[in-house]
Amino acid sequence: MRILLIAVMTMLLTGCGYNDFQTNDEQVKADWAEVLNQYQRRFDLVPNLVNTVKGYAQQEKDVLIGVTEARAKVGSIQATPALINDAQAFAKFQAVQGELTSALNKLMVVSENYPQLKSDAVFRDLQAQLEGTENRITVARNRYIKSVQAYNVLARSFPTNLTAMMFSYSVKPSFTVEDEKAVSKAPTVDFGTPKAAPAAK
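Given the sequence above, the corresponding structure tokens read:
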């Protein structure tokens, strides 16, 4: 009882941080919504990108299938607001997004071997949209990481950690350093002059 009384008095004297938790939680939710918004933009770009590449490089079947399957995995996950409070679900979301990033990088590398594809106006526009989206994903993720960091510091610091325990405010999962390195490397987009097609024999 004495320890509990001291804890309560400390909270009253220094501020329990309840309102700070509400503010930080709303910020985390807002930043997470923006992360999802940018990932959705990329998700929507993939079918048109795959179909355009397929028109010029049907023989790259494995790469095309890889992108399609990675996109399907992303679509199978319900990215609800509750996901940011579930470390296991968050890790799974992170993993499938990483797979799609990797698959798209391979697709961009393959495109370098097809001059006619690189010079196609639709493909070039999709490349530009993809690069812009990857950059926006990086910015959105960085904002989310910072807002989660602020929330988690509040949840772990004394005396606000007492409020966290009282109201079950647990720390929130964030993107890992390894995954951050992967996603921050946007697919290479080369707007140089297309190479001449090899002469027919």
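The helical segments are 2-14, 18-56, 61-75, 87-111, 115-118, 121-156, 160-167, 177-183. Try to locate this feature in the token string yourself.
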